């Protein structure tokens, strides 16, 4: 799994340490949220590593030089509701100019199809690189449906950033979208029968928002 070309495991010790603290069942809502925020900043470095830079002329106290800058506005962060929102703040601290969109999907209990209940993204998506965020890439069904929806807006590129995934989630997302690079801090052992990741960290939304 580690060597899949479109899967990027962010194995920096700081990321791994913070993830361990988050996984513990006795982590409070406050510390879970703080750690997720810190982790999102750290993961933002990795996921934006190949961002385009352009060179502008600046004056240092010594002389004039051509120096690299990024245009954060070209980036669109798309949060998959609701747990994706937990990743936004940390990422925006690192790339404050990024635009933000939201997509909400639920699974129809009869057809088991993903149904969209909310969709709002920045204008001119065709000019933007997209990073879709959701802490847990589990069954991959809603991730795949969300990517399908975002592809209709024709962005320049799409990456998928999560905290945790499992072989089943990677397989499902890449079966539908083999071109999407997945960035994750861990690939856990498996899914259970209820679609939860093992060993995982439980329900990310409930832990971020304190709803359980
Ligand atoms: N969503 C979660 O919040 N946790 C899981 O383990 C799987 C999906």
Question: How would you describe this structure to a colleague?
Answer:
The protein is of the alpha/beta class. The chain has one domain (7-50, 74-209): Rossmann fold (3-Layer(aba) Sandwich). Helix content is 32%, strand content 29%. The strands form four sheets. It has a seven-stranded mixed β-sheet. A three-stranded parallel β-sheet has the order 8-10-12. A hairpin with a 4-residue loop joins strand 2 and strand 3 (64-69). The structure holds uracil. The site of uracil (URA) has 10 residues, from helix 6.
Key phrases:
about 210 residues, alpha/beta, Rossmann fold, 7-stranded mixed β-sheet, 6 helices, about 30% strand, globular, binds uracil
Helix content: 25-40%
> β content, as a range?
25-35%
Structural class: alpha/beta
Number of domains: 1
How widely separated are the two ends? 33 Å
Major sheet strand order: 1-11-9-7-4-5-6
Query: Hetero groups bound?
Result: uracil
Order of helices and strands: EHHEEEHEEEEHEEHEEEEH
Which residue ranges are poorly predicted, with pLDDT under 50 across at least 5 consecutive positions? none
Taking all Cα atoms into account, the compactness measure Rg is 18 Å
Fold-level CATH name: Rossmann fold
Output the number of helix runs: 6
- The overall strand count is 14
The CATH architecture: 3-Layer(aba) Sandwich
CATH class: Alpha Beta
| Average pLDDT | 95
**Shape category:** globular
Question: Main beta sheet: strand number and arrangement?
Answer: 7 strands, mixed
């Amino acid at each position: 799994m580690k060597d899949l070309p479109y899967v990027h495991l962010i194995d920096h010790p700081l990321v791994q340490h913070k993830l361990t603290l988050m996984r513990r069942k006795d982590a409070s809502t406050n510390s879970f949220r703080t750690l997720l925020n810190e982790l999102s900043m750290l993961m933002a470095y990795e996921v934006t590593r190949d961002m385009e830079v352009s060179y502008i002329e600046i004056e240092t106290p010594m002389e004039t030089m051509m120096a690299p800058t990024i245009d954060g506005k070209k980036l669109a962060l798309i949060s998959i509701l609701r747990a994706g929102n937990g990743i936004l703040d940390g990422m925006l601290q690192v790339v404050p100019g990024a635009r933000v969109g939201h997509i909400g999907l639920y699974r129809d209990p009869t057809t088991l199809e993903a149904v969209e209940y909310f969709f709002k993204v920045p204008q001119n998506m065709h000019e933007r690189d997209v990073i879709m965020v959701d802490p847990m890439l589990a069954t991959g069904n809603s991730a795949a449906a969300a990517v399908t929806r975002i592809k209709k807006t024709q962005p320049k590129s799409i990456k998928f950033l999560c905290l945790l995934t499992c072989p089943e989630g990677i397989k499902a997302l890449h079966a539908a979208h083999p071109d999407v690079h997945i960035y994750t801090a861990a690939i856990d052992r498996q899914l259970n029968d209820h679609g939860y990741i093992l060993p995982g960290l439980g329900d990310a939304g409930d832990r971020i928002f304190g709803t359980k």
